[in-house]
Amino acid sequence: MQPTKVKLPSLHNQRVLVTRPTQQADQLIDLLKQCGAKPVHLPALKICPISDTDSRYAQLRNQMMNLDHYSIIICISPNAAHQALEWIDQFWPQLPEGIDWYAIGKKTAHILNNQDILAHHSTAGFDSEAMLTLPELTDIRGKRILILRGSSGRAMLAETLTARGAEVEYANLYDRTCPEYDDTHIKSIIYNIPLSSILITSGEALSNFVTVAAGRQKQFSTDSLHHLYLVVPSERIADQARHKGFTRIKVAQGPDDLSMVTALNSANDSEANA
Asked: Which of 13, 108, 122, 151 is the most exposed, having the fewest neighbouring CB atoms within 10 Å of its CB?
């Protein structure tokens, strides 16, 4: 829950589209309701844990059983943190010692810290670029590093750490896929009743949203969406949104719920563009 001392913005009767995955949307929706908004939920990402029938399962199981073989473990996201904790509960009744844990973003670190895993995060930001500024990740020659993540994503972190002399592996804990929706559902959520704003927290979610908004047969025009306020957590995602035709973009201070909601209020109060 958000601290009660925080003054929440007034979003009375604004119909705000939330695109977070199902597992991450509840607190954001509750916060929007506290602000007087009318949130609607259309997940733009589907999180699918790697199952024991998947050909990749054996490698993942081996990595998670051998966490003590790594000097550094980096957790990419809240989803990765939740999935990793399930594996740790299964194989590690006592966490192995001697590992330096890192998390991208305060929220990811908080999830791990709540389970007594001391995870460091950069206060300079919530992405790979911010993580790579940490002095502790500069002199890493010969270190074995495990990156906990979904099965797709940016390669920048691993490539940079490898260039610095580390031996880097990915533990792909889940797949991120584009959800499929019935066209009737898309019309009722996006088009039948006008939206005020859209909240997008990743480039992949942005791409998926544009895909599903067009309908199964690409029969819906998404032009009307380009003039809605779009709140994103970074300049990188704002650039992607511009390339897709969005014109009213606000960059939040971060991807956390309060930052996104506060930026939404600021965007609707002015013609703010990223």
From this structure: 13
